[in-house]
Amino acid sequence: MENFFNPKSVAVIGVSESPANMAKNIVGNLIEFGFKGIIYQVGKTEGTLFSRKIYRSVLEIEDKIDLAVILTPAAAIPQLMEECGKKNIHNIVIESAGFGEFGEKGKELEKTILKIAKKYNIRFIGPNCIGTMDLASGLATSFVSFKNTFKRDGISIVSQSGGVGFSYITTLASENLGISKFASIGNKLNVNENDLLEYLIDDPETKIICIYLEGISNGRKLLEIAKRSPKPVLVQKANTGSHAKSIAESHTAALSSDDKVVDAALKQSGIARILDRETLVNYLKIMPLPKMRGNKLAIISRSGGHAIIAADVSEQEGFELAALNKNFLHDIEKHLRAKVIRLTNPIDIGDLFDYGVYAEIIEKTLKQPNIDGVVFMHAYFSETEGTPSRVLFNKIKDLSYKYDKPVGICIATDEDEFSRLRKELDYPLFNVPSAVVRALALSRDFYLKRSSVIARSEVTKQSPANNCTQGIATAASRPRNDKTAKILRTCLSQKRNPSFQEGMEIFKAYGIPIVKTIQAKNADEAVRAAAKIGYPVVMKISSQKISHKTDVGGVKLNIKNESQLREEHKAMMKTLFQTPSSLRKQGSRALTRDSRLRGNDNREVIIQPMLKKGWELILGAKQDPNFGPVVLAGLGGIFVEIFKDTTIRVVPIDKDEPAKMLSELKGYAILQGARGDKPYDIKAAEAAISKLARLIADFPEIKEIDINPFYVLHKGGGGFALDARVILFAPRPVKIKIDRKAG
Amino acid sequence: MENFFNPKSVAVIGVSESPANMAKNIVGNLIEFGFKGIIYQVGKTEGTLFSRKIYRSVLEIEDKIDLAVILTPAAAIPQLMEECGKKNIHNIVIESAGFGEFGEKGKELEKTILKIAKKYNIRFIGPNCIGTMDLASGLATSFVSFKNTFKRDGISIVSQSGGVGFSYITTLASENLGISKFASIGNKLNVNENDLLEYLIDDPETKIICIYLEGISNGRKLLEIAKRSPKPVLVQKANTGSHAKSIAESHTAALSSDDKVVDAALKQSGIARILDRETLVNYLKIMPLPKMRGNKLAIISRSGGHAIIAADVSEQEGFELAALNKNFLHDIEKHLRAKVIRLTNPIDIGDLFDYGVYAEIIEKTLKQPNIDGVVFMHAYFSETEGTPSRVLFNKIKDLSYKYDKPVGICIATDEDEFSRLRKELDYPLFNVPSAVVRALALSRDFYLKRSSVIARSEVTKQSPANNCTQGIATAASRPRNDKTAKILRTCLSQKRNPSFQEGMEIFKAYGIPIVKTIQAKNADEAVRAAAKIGYPVVMKISSQKISHKTDVGGVKLNIKNESQLREEHKAMMKTLFQTPSSLRKQGSRALTRDSRLRGNDNREVIIQPMLKKGWELILGAKQDPNFGPVVLAGLGGIFVEIFKDTTIRVVPIDKDEPAKMLSELKGYAILQGARGDKPYDIKAAEAAISKLARLIADFPEIKEIDINPFYVLHKGGGGFALDARVILFAPRPVKIKIDRKAG
Question: What is the pLDDT of residue B591?
Fold first, then answer.
């Protein structure tokens, strides 16, 4: 990879003397950025440009070439790559467009160049990109002309989009944040974000890594690399739109859209997700400062209004405005003529015009053990107070590092002063009160999360036997559960998904408690089953095709005796399997829209005991195309339907993760026993989540699992799977869908 | 008010020759801004400054003085105001601090100056402010030195905080947005935001009004003025923190925090709420453009990545990326060498390097009838494409006005180019893709909301008989309900709140359906009551002191016969009135914390019929200290407790407003009949909200009302108040609180 950023020689292919030629901008940029190696120019026609020869082919060049950069029509590229291969060039940047993004013909071309790359052992970036940049080597291969006005420092950028990458660079430049390396990866046919991430983690110049992606090449690998990174990794993942949602066969799939999984996965791996420009800039400004290690903030402001705005945002961000030691302000007051500041946090220093006292207040605040960070808000005009302000800012910088706590400086001043200071001061400056507070919150959240990710990854490194996580080994390292394997084999051979009963058997095999369930083909069998289980019982239709059984009249609760059971059985069969017109009269709207069920179903029901009062959860798992197995939990019924109150993790998960998942739910208070109710058996739900995570990790042939509901009784009573829905990869798609929402 | 901005003569009081003197900055600013009137200087000591005389008192000045600006120690101000009064000065700006914000002594001083102002018919701004500014008259009275680098245009600013006001000005300056007038109102003892809003609405120079507030002086008046404003009014209301929440005696009060009411009130009056700097700038940039009249957006981008980001945000903001007419792009393709753009929205023009075609595409897009607005995203380097880009932007400006649709331009370029263009171009420019899309959404939402507010206010103007709103007249214009008035009179004379029974009677008097309820002092009475009502029945404790009756065991549902009723009555009395230690065993945690209930309560219960399946809503109303009467609705039980799913309006409300309120609830889908359930009687809830709004408006002696629950049956079945809680202003505070949450 080193040759993509620090080659000794570069051949720019596609150059011509024509004024419209774009490839010559690449050479122009290399010259502008002071490239330290040798530049060769290659084009169809011999000629001279930048007082340099244009060769007809790389094969004409005598010296060794470390990197080729190609910008020609797409069709010419296979031949040019062949020549590069013959010339022993192993690194190529292909900037040309016209590949996979332009239909079938382009896709064919992609296959061709991948083949050539394999043949010659070539690694290439692109196609359809604006190349790479390295401020240390002076490499700059964009076909868009750049002026080298960039500050050199430790931020490296990988961007799938050239345009967005370009915006990152200009944003960083305008904030005076220093860049190390840049790579635009375009269609990322060969080199992808993971290759570059690994390289940048090892790159001594890079301190922070920013990645912009529209699609993720290998999510699981991304997570694994990021987890090991000692450097902060920031990812902006666009393309979150609904059109990207996979077609869902289960609740779990419907509830875990691609973007929700992305979000969970990034969090788990300690990656900071960038949602917009403000977040990006806030992260980049705050990360070089000492860490915000806790929740206690002090606000010191020259304007009461700014203090109030900052206090509002502090509350939103969950900061505590800790009380300040009384002696501390007492000390300060000694220096003052009159009592003009009050013992509050925020501290309003608006009536105090002494820069020495400002610094003293900031220092004394930083010294307080119950303060984790400080916001200092300063409003001034450069003309009158520019000089003392700048002295103060430098003093604050020293204090921040001395006490190893962040001080976020937010200034309100004229634009020129702000621009100038941003460039001159080697310390981040904010000019929006909400931004400085949010930046400190990002620091707090990032480092808290990150330290737990790193701590865990340390544990993993030290004990390879206990790989991945406590309690959950990977599929590879653990024997597959025999019973489950057998059931799935049978299903796959019969090209069908597991039945309800088989699903429940799988859960049982994994130690997930299931409710006692007996299948019954007719009323007589139902009566026998109920006698075995004991009244009161619940009767449900056993169809695989109905995901919302309650909605269509397929569930009857609290059946108390045989005669009621017979009556309800008759009624249910009538509701579910009679003609649409009569159904419509009864209001079973959902069913009338699909008549395929009639007569085709096996009409089996299941009998279960009627349980005591409990809460319905939904637990689920699926194989995500990007990140592999994931688990999901939510409060069942209307909570999940209407409030979409769910939580997701990529598997494997830690032992303590199920508890964290449940506590993230908005409705968690219900499980804890809201409004005088007793608490529910949260531990039982946690255990089931852990086991479900094992199951989905062990059997990659399973596409989706729903346990809906997983019914938890009051604390100590346990929890039970009341239903099972297991969907396999491509057995035979279940086509009949009655549900309107999950379908 | 005119003299605060356009006086013919100004006396600056507090000036001295001392270098530390701050008042002389005011004179300096007046000179810097080229004030068109005459400046007089007044100070304790005679002298010369700016080659002008310092008078010892305004009384020494012979000419008429239109405006005095005072910056002296607070204690000197009463005397100075007296002199101003004698000099017939009727407008004063008091910039000095040291008043109400500094304790009791300052508050006394405030009373004194208010008295003097009344005596001499003086209107004053401040104290504790940085004065006023008017770019037309050249008035600039801040004691902070300003450079006059501001663009003059139609944005006027009123700010309670000097520092925040100053930030507004610098923000506008950096965005090259033009200012008309500015007023910092500080403690707003005399002139407040409403006075200035009225003035600015009539001011021909002002086109847009921005107000920053930490406290609202008279919310109801603010709404009335804003509703009539033909100009956009933007309000940033800070100080939203939890410490500002009023102490709540009812659910309604607990659920309608000050800030929630502010939010509802501002929306109702067509005021745009500013939440942060980005929103402010987005509004100010987008408002001068043609309005976004609908939901259909087209995105045209030179960078695929920016197009994707903009599309993501468009989806979040509820825009539809409408399909474009096929002929349209067919037309365009004729001009092109190769087929390099596809028939999609976003349109990616990245491979098209022809500025003429860009303009043509934008024009043809604007022509499409199914497009309401366009986002144009342009990435370029000034050096290479600066000139054609600027020509294009001017062309876009013309097209936007020609087709009367907004085109949001977002550029990615070097910082200097962006800075320069912002200053040179008379059209707003964005540089963040999310911001341009959000700005168009603000335009759409603002004008949609605003047009309905204006339409309604037109109706009101035309038919004064039908004042305020259809269906709900104000208290003043309508006779008070006799029965309610009588109940409240009795309660007030007995210094108590209405009982449950009285509350229900009030509801009945207002046409809010109530469930049949009989009060019973003991088990025998309860049995008689149940016989009258008919089994099954519900029994509830009748205490005024318990707001969550279910939580403490004070509600028993579905009692089927006399023997069960007697049994349950006994059990309930035991649970509620026995000793804490035995209660603890039974798990009634809430009750054990307050033993005052024991023995003191009248032990009455109420008997109601057991209703059919329905949903619980909570309806409520209260007198808000800022905005007067408000109504509230939410889904009851855990929904309101855990999800805080409520909606609020300031009364009076329109006929169609209750329906809108309910449809705003996250759980609205439940009322519509989620998951196969039948729809509930939404109309019944709407009617009750209307009537509750009348009730709270008619009786300002009522502080808070809870109807919790208002129980709605399935559609057509109606809805009923099952409980009543009416709290009056200061009858005798109800001290005993058992509830942990609403308390």
Answer: 46
Q: How far is CA B491 from CA A505, B41, B475, B640, B702, in A?
A: 66, 61, 20, 30, 11
> What's the token pair of residue A557?
């609760």
- HEC profile for B648-687? EEECCCCCCHHHHHHHHCCCHHHHCCCCCCCCECHHHHHH
3-state secondary structure at position B380: coil
Strands of A208-213's sheet in order across: A139-140, A132-134, A179-184, A152-159, A208-213, A233-237, A272-273
Q: Which of A311, A414, A553 sits opposite B241 (nearest CB)?
A: A311
Mean pLDDT (whole number) for B7-11: 97
Taking CB atoms and an 8 Å cutoff, what residues of chain B touch A145? 381, 383-384
Among the partner-chain residues B145, B164, B170, the one whose CB lies closest to the CB of A303 is B164
Quick one: B602 and B581 in the same domain?
Answer: yes
Q: Is B413 exposed, middle or buried (0-12, 13-18, 19+ CB in 10 A)?
A: buried
State how far residue B176 is from chain A, nearest Cα, in angstroms: 11
Type and span of the H or E element at B182: strand B179-184
- Whether A620 and A709 map to the same domain: the answer is yes
Mean per-residue pLDDT, B260-267: 92
Are residues B150 and B29 part of one domain? yes
Closest residue in A to B174 (Cα–Cα):
A415
DSSP A50: T
Pure H helices in B428-561: 433-462, 482-493, 500-509, 523-533
Amino acid at A262: V
Average pLDDT over residues B447-452: 79
pLDDT for the residue numbered A72: 95
Q: How confident is the model at residue B559 (pLDDT cuts 50, 70, 90)?
A: very high
- pLDDT for the residue B374: 97
B350 and B358 in contact (C-beta within 8 Å)? no
Same domain? B623 vs B728: yes
Give, rounded to a whole angstrom, the gap between the first and last alpha carbons of chain A. Answer: 45
Q: Considering CB atoms only, which of B174, B305, B350 is closest to A415?
A: B174
**Partner residue opposite B308 with nearest CB, options A165, A238, A667:** A238
Number of structural domains (chain A) is 5
Question: Taking CA atoms, what residue in B is nearest to A103?
Answer: B342
Residue A503 belongs to some domain of the structure: yes
Of B551 and B158, more confident: B158
Q: What's the DSSP call for residue A626?
A: T
Amino acid at A312: D
Q: Which of B388, B420, B452 lies at the terminal end of a domain, its last residue?
A: B420
How many A-B residue pairs are in contact by the CB < 8 A criterion? 196
Task: Say if A468 falls within a structural domain.
Answer: no
| Cα–Cα distance for residue pair A632/A620, rounded to 1 Å | 5
CA distance A314 to chain B (A): 9
- Decide if B676 and A552 are in contact by the 8 Å CB cutoff: yes
Average pLDDT for residues B274-299, to the nearest whole number? 93
Render pLDDT for B624-662 as a digit per residue (tens, 0 to 9). Answer: 988 999 999 999 877 777 788 899 999 999 899 999 999
Nearest CA to B318 among A472, A409, A242?
Answer: A242
Domain coverage including residue A355: 290-447
CA pseudo-torsion sign A692, A695, A696, A697: positive
Structure tokens at B33: 């801004």
Three-state secondary structure call for residue B48: strand
Residues of chain A with pLDDT under 50: 243-247, 463-475, 582-600, 733-743
User: What sign for the dihedral angle of Cα A373, A378, A382, A383?
Assistant: negative
Note whether B305 contacts A666, CB cutoff 8 Å: no
Taking the C-alpha atoms of residue A722 and residue A668, their distance in angstroms, rounded to an integer, is 21
Nearest residue to B92 (alpha-carbon basis) of B43, B127, B56, B125: B125
Q: Is ipTM strictly over 0.95?
A: no
Q: Final residue of a domain: which of B420, B435, B466?
A: B420
